[in-house]
Write a structure and sequence with these properties.
heterodimer; A: six-stranded mixed beta sheet; B: about 110 residues; mainly beta; four-stranded antiparallel beta sheet
Chain lengths: ~110, ~110
Amino acid sequence: AQTVTQSQPEMSVQEAETVTLSCTYDTSESDYYLFWYKQPPSRQMILVIRQEAYKQQNATENRFSVNFQKAAKSFSLKISDSQLGDAAMYFCAYRSPRDDKIIFGKGTRLHILP
Amino acid sequence: ETGVTQSPTHLIKTRGQQVTLRCSSQSGHNTVSWYQQALGQGPQFIFQYYREEENGRGNFPPRFSGLQFPNYSSELNVNALELDDSALYLCASSWGTSVDTQYFGPGTRLTVL
C-alpha cells in the first residue's frame, strides 16, 4: 500500500523568505501523480501544484516549485517570497492512475512571520 | 463557473443517530469523491461516485453510504453514528475517474456527542 509521510508538523518562515516543506512517499508503482494541497483556516483544500511521475522536469507555479526525486521517493515544495496569505496547512498527496483515491500525508502547518 | 459547495457547514448529532451530508459538484464535473478528515490529520478517502455508481471505496464500514444524482450532486449518509465519526467531511469533484485534478468543497464539520 502507498504511504505519504510529512515529517515536519510545523514550520515558520519570515515574510519574503523562502521555505521548503518535505514529503516522502512509498510505492511500488512506476507511474503515479503527486500533489501539494493548501488548506487555510477556511478549510477549503486548494491545489497548489501537481507533478506527473513520468515527467523529469519539476513542476512550477509562480512562487511555488517542487523538487521531485523519483529514485529517492521525495517530493518537496519550495515557496519563494513567502507572503502572509501562504499561512496554512500544506498536505502532500499521492494518486495512482489505477485507483480513485488520493492518499494524503498528515500535513505541515506553515506560519508566516511578519 | 460554480465551485464545489457543501451543506450544512456544521452539524451536531448524538451517538446512534443518522446523518446526511450534501455536495454539489463543480459545473461540468461528473465524479464526486468523499473524504473524512479527523482533527490534526490528513483527509482519508471514503468512496467515489461516477455517473451515479460507486466507483471505489476506502476502508470505511458499510454504515457509510452514498448516492449520486443525475445532476451529479451527491450525498454521504452515515448510520449509527459513533464518537469517532466526529470530523470534517470533504467532497471533491472532477471530470472523469482518471487523474484529473479534484476540486474540494469547504467541508461539513460533524460533531458526534
